[in-house]
Predict the structure.
Amino acid sequence: MKRKIMVTGGAGFIGSNFIHYIIQNTDYEVVNVDALTYAGNLENLKNLTDEKKHRFIRCDICDKNSLKEIFDGNEFSGVINFAAESHVDRSILDPSVFIDTNVKGTLNLLQLTMERCAGRFLQISTDEVYGELKTEEEKSFTEDSLIKPNSPYAASKASADMLVLAFNRTFKQDVVITRCSNNYGPYQFPEKLIPLIIYKAMRMEKLPIYGDGKNVRDWIHVNDHARGVLLAFEKGKSGEVYNIGSRNEKTNIELVRLILKILGREESLIEFVKDRPGHDRRYSIDPSKAERELGFKVLNDFDSSLRDTVNWYQSNKEWVDHCITGEYREYFKKNYSPKEAI
Ligand SMILES: NC(=O)c1ccc[n+]([C@@H]2O[C@H](COP(=O)([O-])OP(=O)(O)OC[C@H]3O[C@@H](n4cnc5c(N)ncnc54)[C@H](O)[C@@H]3O)[C@@H](O)[C@H]2O)c1
């Protein structure tokens, strides 16, 4: 029998890369449920290796009645929830949509997956639920680290995680959570650090860097994340959380300098701007449990994959240009006005 899964948020950055990955490497059929917010882009799903294994349905996960129809019309053997409002800066400007999608939307999916016996529910979470590490010396986050989110985005993701685990404990629902570090790769909306820097550096524009640029992030290629998610979905133990990361910490300024070097641009483009309120200092993920229990292994070497990523944005100018429209422009002006430069 063919295996059909629901993937939500499949028109976004990680969801679309995940769909490319599983269509190419497995026999799953995918029903992709996405509201197409500013971050959802169906151009991400052009050139799937087998179009017949993918069906797109535009639907907001907050709209439970429409979701019900999708569950009623399909026999799913699992649900993987990537759909989310995902940008910390936006959550500072307006947290409410983060609670709607990330918390209430997740609740709708959990309930329907349980009621319709739609198999395992996998929640895509983030390392940001653990809050921040303050120094280089502090140990990386494990699955047992305290949940101490700092931004409204991270708080909404932590709330969803708590609900998912509560459904496992209370209703014995088959759930798994993955918590991944910062992703990079193709199809990332150019408001996030790496595509934003590439876009602006290519146009010789100033590169806005928050604070002193010494915030540390732990970078993983999106395809490694996709492989980790599939492993957790197929081999993870119900009720468990798995960290996914690649032990690859970089300060923001170090990362920006690497990108400038690849592009052959001057460091004088860098411009430090007023820090983000509540900006977490360091994230660092310990993926030992996923390595031990799921056989997870990182395959993408950072230096060459970063180079490939820069090349991808250089050769897909049309994709980038299509993203730079409407709401994004307004938001961009609001967030990176020269007044904020210090
Ligand atoms: N980007 C990262 O580095 C990173 C790291 C760890 C975890 N995550 C998590 O991975 C998931 C995907 O992140 P991303 O970077 O691909 O995000 P993204 O913003 O690129 O994509 C989000 C997708 O969800 C869709 N969406 C938003 N609200 C919706 C709603 N109400 N109903 C249906 N669809 C909706 C959007 O249209 C978009 O296609 C998120 O859950 C995020 O928390 C991201």
About this structure: The CA atoms of residues 99 and 156 lie 6 Å apart. Confidence is low (pLDDT under 50) at residues 326-332, 335-342.
